[in-house]
Structures are given as structure tokens and as C-alpha cells.
Amino acid sequence: MTNPEVRVHEDIEGLAEAAARLFVREANEAIGGSGRFAVALAGGSTPKATYEILASRYASPSDLDWSKAHVFFGDERAVGPDHEDSNYRMAHEALLSRVPVGSVRRMRGELPPPEAASLYEEELTTFFGGPPRLDLVMLGIGDDGHTASLFPRTPALDVDDRWAVENPVRKLGTTRLTLTAPAINAAKNVVFLVAGEGKAEALREILEGDADPRDYPAKLVRPASGPVWMVDRAAAGLLS
Ligand SMILES: O=C1O[C@H](COP(=O)(O)O)[C@@H](O)[C@H](O)[C@H]1O
User: Fold this and answer.
1) pLDDT tens by residue, 62-91
2) Peptide bond before 227: cis, by omega within 30 degrees of 0?
3) What is the domain extent for residue 146?
4) What sequence ranges are listed for the domain Glucosamine/galactosamine-6-phosphate isomerase (predicted)?
5) How remote is the CA of residue 192 from the centroid of ligand 1, in Å?
6) Which of 86, 81, 67, 193 is nearest to 137 (CA)?
7) Which residues have C-beta atoms less than 6 Å from ligand 1?
8) What angle do CA 67, 71, 75 make, to 5 degrees?
9) Within 13 Å, how many C-alpha atoms sit on residue 13's CB side?
């Protein structure tokens, strides 16, 4: 296991540009090695600018052979693909409708959550022919320290024998779908994108505090290498 690496960018634009470059670099490296690139996208609002830069500046096959990119998701809300809260919808509008990706494997937020989670686990194991090993997992954090849909003190945090699960989040009154920490930690590369002052306290606790990981689930992300934290100056404001 290596230490997390923190890269501070001036603002969200700088962060998004650097994240897009990292995405393209990792994709080309994976395609050069195995002939394909398997990535899990983050939802929420922070990665949108990165996805838009990928679609506008890196759409050309000379930058990236998108047909070899296979797109998974780190988490999904309990809504259909057209809903404004859908992580798939955001990624589709910002990126996936604009580049010719090899495949898109979304979590089916419109189905009963246990069924959707089982289907996603099947999707992962079929694609990888066994335990998933994504080339890149992109993540964000919430100001409560959640990542993907691993929320503080929720059942999914204790799961060590599944790759994707439904996760009841009592404080939101809903059940989310999420990759588990073991699925994330099995990835070759994991990158967090974090922007804004509202994330500063959580980021400090995750990277420098000694709180229980169950209260700050992003602490459970400990892949063999990294993770890389790409943060803006506002989010990094409380780091030592
Ligand atoms: O609910 C979610 O929150 C996190 C952070 O979202 P952001 O809007 O603050 O960027 C996100 O990473 C996750 O995918 C999403 O479902």
C-alpha cells in the first residue's frame, strides 16, 4: 500500500483540466496494456466539468480510442436514467452522449435496489471474468465524508464479500446503489475529485484526522497504490 497523494489545483477549472489529462493518460496506458479501459465514473456535481472537458477536447481517436473504453459507475441514486438526480444522466449529458464509448454499464436505479445491486455485481463479474479490477475509479466526497454511496454508519460499510450492494441511507430516506470498498480498493487507480470550501472539514478529517472510518467512509478507500486526491485550493484550505 502506498500513501495517498494530494494534488492541489487553483480552482475547479484547473482541477478538471488535470483530471481530464489523468483520465486520458490512464486510459491510454490501460488500452496499451490490455486492449481496453474499464473506468467507474463518479456522480454528483464535481466531476461534470471534467467530463465536459473530455468530451470537448479529447473526443478525437488520436487522443483516445473511446471504443475501447468501458464505463461503469461508482454509485447511483434510486431514480431512473432520465431523472435529474441520476448520476448516469449527468455523465450521459456531459460525456457519454458525446464520445463513442465501447460500452456503458449503468446501475439500474429504477429497479428494486436488491435486484439492481445483484444485476450490477453480475455485470462486473461477467465483464472481468471474476473479481472486478477496474483500471480507474473516479470518486467524490460529500461534506459528511461519504464517497460513492458509502455513507457514514450505513450497512454497506461492513460488506466485504460483495462488489456492489444496495445501501439504505436513513438520513436521506432512500436506498442507494454503490460499489463496495473492496471493489474500489481492487482497482488499479483511484482518484478523488474534491472542490469547494464546503468539503474542507471533511477532507481534513479524511486525510489527517483520526476519526473512525465509519464516520468518514472515504477513509475506507485504501487501494494498493494511491489514491490520488485532486483538490482545489478551497477544499484544501484546512490541510496542514
Ligand atoms: O451523492 C453523491 O455525492 C458525491 C459527492 O457529490 P458532489 O455533488 O458533492 O460532487 C458523489 O461523488 C457521488 O457519486 C454522489 O452520488
Assistant:
1) 999 999 999 999 999 999 999 999 999 999
2) yes
3) 5-238
4) 11-226
5) 11
6) 193
7) 42-46, 74-75, 87, 139-140, 142, 148-149
8) 170
9) 0
ipTM over 0.85: yes
Residue owning the nearest CA to atom 10 of ligand 1 = 46
DSSP state of 31: H
Centre of ligand 1 to C-alpha 224, Å, is 23
> Residue 194 pLDDT > 70, yes or no?
yes
* Banded pLDDT at 1 (limits 50, 70, 90): low
pTM (2 d.p.):
0.98
Nearest ligand 1 atom, CA 87: 16
C-alpha cell at 180: 463496495
Q: How far is the CA of 74 from the centre of ligand 1 (A)?
A: 10
Number of domains in the chain: 1
The domain that holds 172 is classified in CATH as 3.40.50.1360
